[in-house]
Design brief:
Elements lengths: L3 E6 L7 E7 L4 E2 L2 E2 L4 E4 L2 E4 L8 E2 L2 E3 L6 E6 L6 E7 L3 H4 L3 E4 L15 E6 L4
Antiparallel strand pairs: 1-10, 2-9, 2-12, 3-4, 5-8, 5-11, 6-10, 7-9
Protein name: Cell surface protein
InterPro entries: WxL_dom
Length: about 130
């Protein structure tokens, strides 16, 4: 199953909502940093059993400066019920839908690299 994010809006106000994500700093492994690395999310597919109009979703790439990227946006009278945004419509597409690109000139120390992603859901459309 592709990686996904899910939003459920059962408020009944039909006011809309907005989901963003930001990367809080570059990928690090102890004292080593993946300078210039870019984490990208592509091939968004939005699904729901809800009968409301669908929220919008688009490709996005994160940067380590902590600037928020739009993930999904539901305007007024959109996105009611439970909505899932998958990154890739199927397993084959999913394998290529979240990528980490690291420049060849960046020093890479063997080990586990980590970065923190902060997701924010607001109760108004963008």
């Amino acid at each position: 199953m592709p990686n996904f994010v899910q939003v459920t809006d059962n408020r009944g106000s039909n006011a809309g909502w907005h989901l963003t994500v930001k990367q809080d700093g570059q990928f690090t492994n102890g004292g080593s940093e993946l300078t210039g690395a870019v984490l990208a999310f592509t091939n968004p597919t939005v699904n729901s059993a809800s009968e409301s109009d669908a929220p919008t979703a688009s490709d996005f790439a994160l940067n380590p400066e902590g600037i928020a990227s739009d993930v999904m946006n539901a305007e007024e009278n959109q996105g009611m019920g439970t909505w899932v945004e998958m990154f890739g419509a199927n397993n084959q597409e999913a394998a290529e839908s979240i990528t980490l690109s690291v420049p060849g000139k960046t020093s890479k120390v063997p080990g586990k690299y980590e970065a923190t992603l902060t997701w924010e859901l607001t109760d108004t459309p963008a």
